[in-house]
């Protein structure tokens, strides 16, 4: 039986398991993908080449392709998220996985049964999945010294947790220091310095995101120290605090007004009693003279 040339190519890239390879894993191709999106695990078997069957495996069989008497092969998949590409240039019998989740991370195998003495050829893929990064947020901490030197700390972060996320700031000047793995920028600014834009950059293997702001604008004013956050949570807490202060003020005004009315009534009652008492004393001091007949 004539051996197709593409099998020698696959064997060179991915040695078959068995003879001479006992106990060894085939070469592994590293792939990265975006959470919630799709990925294609490439097979690249030339169109028209013959084989008995191909089985895609991840913990259990995902898809089986069998050569038949008809022109189109028989394809069985275990989940609608899996699709075997057929008659696709340079991607024949590749496996497409849609709507990726964290559970899709791991090792995938494609076992190619050739039906000849070469036996089975195995291709192996390791899939890593990362989220697409949202826009980072920056929390600002200020401290203004007596010499009007403004010391600014900018802390950059993204919501949620992820792996392999790298932080950095640009540009960096003479009075800037980066700490905490690149997520925190310390800088100094004083009146007369030209304002400049600082940009936090966050990246992972599949995306990059940034947030820019002019730090000098937060140093304007007589403040000695403050903290300002760009996050909506801080703004919401500030509004709740103001509403609480307003409510307490209204209650105190109500209590004061009520007590003032009570005191006024008491004063009026005491004044009335004094007037009545004075009237009685005046009556006792008056004498009546009878005329002589």
TrEMBL record:
Domain Ig-like: residue ranges: 136-214
InterPro entries assigned to the protein according to its UniProt record, in alphabetical order: CD2/SLAM_rcpt, Ig-like_dom, Ig-like_dom_sf, Ig-like_fold, Ig_sub, Ig_V-set
Keyword entries, A-Z: Glycoprotein, Membrane, Signal, Transmembrane, Transmembrane helix
Superkingdom of source: Eukaryota
UniProt-annotated location(s): Membrane
Predominant localisation class: membrane
Record bears the keyword Transmembrane helix: yes
One Pfam entry name: V-set
Residues that span the membrane, as ranges: 236-256
Signal peptide as annotated in the record: 1-20
One GO cellular component term noted in the UniProt record for this chain: external side of plasma membrane
Record keyword Magnesium present: no
Biological-process GO terms, alphabetical: T cell activation
Gene3D superfamilies: Immunoglobulins (2.60.40.10)
PANTHER family attached to this UniProt entry: SIGNALING LYMPHOCYTIC ACTIVATION MOLECULE (PTHR12080), SLAM FAMILY MEMBER 9 (PTHR12080:SF18)
Protein name listed in UniProt: Ig-like domain-containing protein
Organism of derivation: Vombatus ursinus (Common wombat)
